[in-house]
Amino acid sequence: MPEIPHFVQEQARVLSNQPVAKGIYLMRLEAPAVSRTCQPAQFVQILTDPGLSPFLRRPFSALRVDRDAGWFEIIYDVIGPGTERMAVAKIGDEFDINGPLGQPFVPPNTGRLLLVGGGVGLVPLAFLAWAHPERRNDMVYLMGAANGHRMPDMAALLPQNLVLHLATDDGSVGHKGFVTQLIAEHVVPNTTVITCGPHAMMAQVAKIAGERKLPCFASLENHMACGFGACMGCVVAYKEATTPDLQYRRVCLEGPMVNAHAIVW
Amino acid sequence: MDLSTHIGGGLKIKNPVMMASGTFGHGAEYATLFDLSRLGGVVTKTITFHARAGNLPPRTVETPSGMLNSIGLTNPGIDAFIRDKVPPLAALNTGRVVSIAGTSNEEFAEMARRFNDLDGVDALELNISSPNMKDGGMLFGCSETAAHDVTRAVKAVSRLPIIVKLTPNVTDIAAIAVAVEEGGADGIALINTLLGMAVNIHTRRPVLGNITGGLSGPAIKPVALALTWKVVNRVSVPVIGMGGITTVQDALEFLIIGASAIQVGTATFVHHSAALEIIDGIADYCKAHQLANLSDLVGSLQPPLGR
After folding, report:
1. DSSP state, residue B182
2. Of A82, A102, A141, A238, which is least packed with CB atoms within 10 Å of its CB?
3. Burial level of B158, CB count in 10 A (0-12/13-18/19+)?
4. Which of A245, A251, A254, A258 to mutate to probe the B interface, most B CBs <10 Å?
5. Rounded distance, CA A7 to CA B6, Å?
6. How many CA atoms within 13 Å lie on the side-chain side of B243?
7. pLDDT in tens, A97-145
8. What's the ipTM?
């Protein structure tokens, strides 16, 4: 079982906070300790209110870090009281954060990396692209959203020259249909699929990858209480386990990036 | 200033703040987070005789000022626990309490017996109060007779202090407390979580995979405090109070009404070092009120004005 990551609790200061699509915000937080060590697929737990409501922290994957300047960015969908508080945060406001949490993910160092994102699931995939300039020529980024209003300006969020294909359910931007329909045409020999997005989308990505015998990793975002492995609440079921207590494993500690073929979708 | 306190069976811990079972793993894995030797004690996540997978997810949901959980006692079983978890636990310089849950009196007793010859475990906490264990747990804690008998069965074989953790999901928790004291309990801990439920109105399904779960967090503190007060007035063994303790104010209230120690649980999920802040706050309070010993604070509740 993995060790508990050595996370820190830090007061993070808002450097910027603005919408990048309808109901979706980009926030830059000054937090030198977290920014110094945060790796792709890791996340932070943000206390959105210092009082008791909301009571628990909320997990957010890192999009990009600047280790020297001491900031990192997140993208969040305004879906409840926690993110509603974040959406009205002003420059200079502070949030109590824990991080970095979860296991870092290092992509395979050869072959194509097919990144399949949906909605705010774009975040950990974008971090992979930012963190691995040496692998960018092998990356193809497929991005899906419900419609054009919900599709951020990806050029502003991704490194330049990254191959990018968009899909929207209503066809208002890019391919009309699900982003998963784009996968087949971008598979080449020795492709690894890496996905993050809504559960149903990731399940479909894993299915397609499985049919083509491609390695596939998924970044999960189950509900969490602690984020550091103590509560056992955020678990996902695995197809195989040597002992009963390994049937479910923690997204926050063993994940959040998991072998998509090993879990029960 | 002496913050040490007795929690039963001659076991003295250095201060009254302990980590509650199920909220801090098996203790030692969090040694990187802060200095665990500052704690009064650690209660490990409940173990059962056989390994358990736990309940179907989702297992947690936030509710106003609290959360529901239906983890379901995920654990590697007693053999793996003793092999893998007890050695690092034994190395900790704090009160080391192991929480156990059985499915029968005999299984409880057999589990307790396994700890007789082990170094590094200071006490056992009998979990007869989990709302998430269908074949045991709360079943033992809901009946005076069952609670008494399981306590007696464990006491008959164990050489360790036995603390019994009670469920609030009963008609008269003080009667259960008296029953376990008569069964030989060295200490009593309360409360475990309150049975709770949440429904997703969009899908009209229960939010939790297990349908119901246990409510914890600040929302339950006043309930926990009242029940702890009822119990301390009826038993003479030390009582460990818990339920939503998040701040030093919360902890002080439990100590003032007569709890000899307290446990911090769900608050750790939000502020992982909440227990340390509570220890410091208790020390500050005792200093400000010129209390030389924690025992001067425990049970110092005054009557309401006018009585």
Report:
1. H
2. A238
3. buried
4. A245
5. 34
6. 30
7. 999 999 999 999 999 999 999 999 999 999 999 999 999 999 999 999 9
8. 0.94
Give the residue among A22, A24, A230, A36 at the shortest CA–CA distance from A12.
A36
Element (H, E) at B22: none
d(CA A112, CA A258): 18
Q: Are the beta carbons of A223 and B24 separated by less than 8 Å? A: no
What is the CB neighbour count within 10 angstroms for residue B171?
7
**What is the identity of the amino acid at B199?**
V
Amino acid at B22: G
| Tokens representing residue A243 in the block | 């002992």
Whether A52 and chain B come into contact, CB under 8 Å, resolves to yes
- Chain A 87-116, CB below 8 Å of chain B: which residues? 98
- The pTM (predicted TM-score) of the whole model is 0.96
Q: Is A259 exposed, middle or buried (0-12, 13-18, 19+ CB in 10 A)?
A: middle
- Give contacts of B76 with chain A, Cβ < 8 Å: 243, 245
Q: How far is CA A225 from CA A220, B69, B265, in A?
A: 15, 9, 12
- The CA distances from residue A109 to A184, A217, B82, B304, in Å, are 22, 14, 41, 71
- Kindly write down the DSSP assignment for every residue of B195-263, as one continuous string: EEE-EETTTTEESSTTSEEEEESGGGHHHHHHHHHHHHTT--S-EEEESS--SHHHHHHHHHTT-SEEE
Predicted local distance difference test score (pLDDT) of residue B139: 81
Bond prior to A198 in cis (omega within 30° of 0): no
CB atoms within 10 A of CB A71: 20
What are the beta bridge partners of residue A57? none
